[in-house]
Design goal:
The chain is an alpha/beta fold. It is 39% helix and 14% strand. The longest helix has 19 residues.
Length: 446
């Protein structure tokens, strides 16, 4: 029999809407799971069980009265970089341990409006940097939980909560989701307001969703999209729509061989098996090379990222230098020394590269490649960003979909990249791909 904490968000919603699942009982099951697993996994920064119980009782009343919102009664974990009313937002930075802004980020306000329940804050690397967190990987306690959205991925994989929010500046939604065997989704840059997000990079930061199905991630991402006058980078476009069943045809995909050049043999072998299964089921997969060298993409991203990060953290550096993690501090010091001319030049190159990638979209539904270049490495690192960074540079919508377990019993994922502003189509592609790959089991490290 399926335990309540094993339900996906969409399955739980369907049962609540049918009157066969109480939001209160569902929350209690998740809290019991957290009590049992958190002492080992260490993924939650702070929680609000009393507030969540009050909200679950209100959700039950809303279902009874016929006034339930589209996400009513589903608990959500929030990366500790996103502002939440009544809960502190520290960004894993000791001087901000008690920082409570007294208001929600726009994305949180929209989730609450749709009926979602904010259960608590989950671990992040410091200001989304690359110094690993205390969180453990539930597949193997000696392997990395990745980052920067380590807590977001682990909480979903370990069945502590069905949905979490993460953020991506290089690969921090897709990489940890890929390592943990869950679905990760970041819409086009500007689709989800960043008002209320502690910044790392003005031109890269994106908010994304992790869940255990494509439908879960798409539903919650769609609820957060739309214009926001509080964030000038937010697109003045109507929110994207979820696809209907008629749109879920075999996709036409382009596979970049460059990523197999930098990935492990284990990863390449299992992703190739997954691609062969998709092809046998009717997908069209063409092979190509990147229009520019992968090394160039990584270099451009690094220059822009650390330059902007040194700007966002200038005040904290002046006041609390001793509180920064060593890896992040080194990046910030280097970023502050990069000339403005180099920064401007990389941004100009970024625009030209985006045009080159756009030319490859004709006649296809998206790109396919490994989600990560290897399965989760050891705990000393959050893992390489080789497979995720190019799409962050472009700002295009991306999914990672679980594709089974590698030779070491650790998750493998396939990454799907869509055209900008074409989330509806990419969701249909990801849903089709998910339906032709094996379901991911629960982790069993202990």
């Amino acid at each position: 029999m399926t335990e309540l904490h094993d339900l996906t968000a969409t399955d739980a919603l369907a049962r609540m809407q049918a009157g066969t699942l109480s939001p209160v009982a569902y929350l209690d099951s998740l809290l019991a799971r957290i009590d049992a697993r958190e002492p080992t996994i260490q993924t939650w920064v702070c929680m609000d069980p009393d507030g969540a119980r009050d909200a679950s009782q209100a959700a039950a009343a809303a279902y009874a009265s016929g006034s339930a919102g589209p996400l009513c009664g589903i608990p959500v974990g929030i990366k500790d970089l996103i502002l939440t009313e009544h809960l502190p937002t520290a960004g894993n930075f000791a001087p901000m341990r008690d920082f409570n802004p007294g208001h929600d980020a726009t994305c949180i306000a929209r989730l609450r409006e749709a009926g979602a329940i904010i259960l608590g804050k989950v671990e992040t690397t410091q200001f989304a940097g690359r110094d690993p967190t205390r969180t453990h990987n539930p597949w193997n306690l000696e392997r990395t939980a990745s980052g920067s959205s380590s807590g977001s991925a682990v909480a979903v994989a370990d069945r502590m909560v069905p949905i979490t929010l993460g953020t991506q500046t290089g690969g921090s939604v897709i990489r940890p989701a890929g390592y943990m065997g869950v679905v990760g989704f970041t819409p086009t840059f500007g689709r989800i307001s960043r008002y209320g997000l502690l910044p790392r990079s003005y031109s890269f930061d994106m908010i994304g969703v992790m869940g255990r199905s494509v439908a879960d991630a798409a539903l919650f991402a769609a609820a957060m999209t739309g214009p926001d006058p509080l964030d000038r980078a937010t697109l003045k476009r109507t929110p994207f729509k979820l696809p209907d069943q008629a749109s879920k045809r075999p996709p036409r995909l382009l596979l970049f061989e460059d990523f197999f050049d930098v990935s492990s043999d284990d990863m390449n072998r299992h992703v190739t098996v997954a691609v062969d299964r998709l092809t046998a089921a009717g997908a069209t997969v063409r092979r190509a090379r990147l229009p520019v060298p992968l090394d160039l993409l990584i270099s451009l991203h690094t220059v822009i990222l650390i330059t902007e990060a040194s700007s966002t953290q200038a005040g904290n550096l002046a006041r609390h230098r001793e509180s920064f993690a060593p890896g992040l501090l080194s990046q910030l010091d280097i970023g502050s020394a990069i000339p403005a001319t180099a920064y401007v030049h990389t941004q100009r190159l970024r625009h030209r590269i985006r045009l080159q990638f756009e030319a490859l979209l004709k006649g296809i539904d998206g790109f396919i490649l490994p989600s990560t270049s290897e399965v989760a490495p050891d705990r000393s690192t959050i893992g390489p960003r080789l497979c995720q960074t190019p799409w962050t540079i472009l700002g295009w919508p991306v999914f990672t979909v679980p594709a089974g377990l590698g030779d070491e019993g650790l998750p493998v994922g396939v990454q799907l990249v869509g055209a900008p502003f074409k989330e509806t189509n990419l969701i249909a592609v990801a849903d089709w791909v998910e339906g032709h790959l094996d379901p991911m089991p629960a982790p069993s490290a202990f």
